[in-house]
Amino acid sequence: MATDAGNPITRFPAGFLWGVSTSAHQIEGAAKEREASVWDVFTAEPGRVKDGSTAAVACDHYHRYREDVALLAGLGVDAYRFSVSWPRVNSPGGLDFYDRLVDELCAAGVRPVPTLFHWDLPASLDWLERDTAARFADHVSVVAERLGDRVTKWITLNEPAEHTLLGHALGAHAPGRQLLFDALPVAHHQLLAHGLAVRALRAAGAGDIGIANSHGPTWPASKDPADLEAAAFYDVLLNRLFADPVILGAYPEGLGELMPGDVQADLKVIGEPVDWYGINYYAPTRVGAPQGTEIEFGGLTLPAELPFSVREIEDRPVTDFGWPVVPEGLTELLTGFRDRYGDRLPPIVITENGCSYEGIDDQDRIAYLDGHVRALHAALEAGVDVRGYFVWSLLDNFEWAEGYARRFGLVHVDFADPTLKRTPKASYHWFRDVLRAQR
Ligand code: FCB
């Protein structure tokens, strides 16, 4: 891949927040020391996870967090985005773990940035139920009460779009439902949960609140009207269904009518102002008219009934996951958001960006990250207000339905070794040097 790697990366503004991200279910392990989540139920069902694995042990971060915080300190990041497991908080002693983790981070000079929900819903709850939104607000209040004296930046939800689409519409993720468009209430209830969480955090005196949504440019397969229409529809699902209600307090045209409950009243809650908007960016998607057949794409099977089909992006290198590497897609995405939302767009933080590649001398990952950091700088130069960038991920971890087969870490984890040995990869050292040069 052609890169500018080797030339120094231009300086970002003072105060720009550099970090790495993880999530509880993917790294913590210690599954017996908390109640079950929908992911424990899902992974226990044969055939759900490609390598048949579960996250019962994962990186055992629950017991090895001190070692992991030392890795963060060695990397020199400003901030660490992790998630607080709702099932663990519900379990005796669970909140104590996050208390210890936050103390350890603060002592190491790394700012804790918790996500309050990253897909591991307590197994007793269901996003099809409206009440789950209110239960989430209770969970948020409990966490804010305990950690709010040290945590100064918060994320409500991670990727409600993926949790709706993969978990409830297509069945590739927990809880494994295949409701297609009947999954829309799951979107609405998560959005409501987000708005109630913003209120709960503010009531607890917390500030600097955002959400982490996944977004990427949608590239139509051709100029054929059928392809353009399908791509526009897909773009609404990925880039507007969750962003419009949060940023504008309104659903894209035609979608509000499909949502349950008193939607107008709920939108007032959902549109509660956030301090910043988090974007997880991996790649653009090429989309065309439906082709009347199932499509295998990026580890997913997309049913023939969908009103769009996903196509290959050709002439691009791909990661081990098969995702195309398109750094300038990040610039396009960010300038597109600025053009769409104008003055209503809050400051942006890139809450995830990364790639899966094998190996410890991971030059491919360095090229990917280097290209994306430069593409991010191009967006700043184009006038987009971006305040931070978090690499996914600190550690190789349990990559959902892919199990341990996809390695996104800056740090290698030997899952065959009883001590789960951590080895910083070449990309860890590269990122540390990028951060040093920014100081
Ligand atoms: C995102 C998820 C994250 C991780 C990366 C690769 O969609 O938020 O947990 O799985 O993809």
Task: Please provide a written account of the structure.
It contains 14 helices and 15 strands. The protein has one domain (17-438): Alpha-Beta Barrel (TIM Barrel). It is α/β, with parallel strands linked by helices. The model has no long low-confidence stretch (mean pLDDT 97). Helix 13 (363-381) links the parallel strand 12 and strand 13. An 8-stranded parallel barrel has the order 1-2-3-4-5-7-12-13, surrounded by 5 helices. The chain is globular and about 55 Å long. It has helices at residues 24-27, 38-44, 61-75, 86-89, 94-107, 131-147, 160-169, 184-203, 225-240, 243-248, 263-270, 328-341, 363-381, 426-438; strands spanning 17-21, 79-83, 111-117, 154-158, 209-214, 218-220, 277-280, 285-288, 295-297, 300-302, 309-311, 348-352, 386-392, 411-413, 422-424. The chain binds beta-D-fucopyranose (FCB). Residues 23, 26, 158-159, 162, 214, 280, 352, 392, 399-400, 408 line the site of beta-D-fucopyranose.
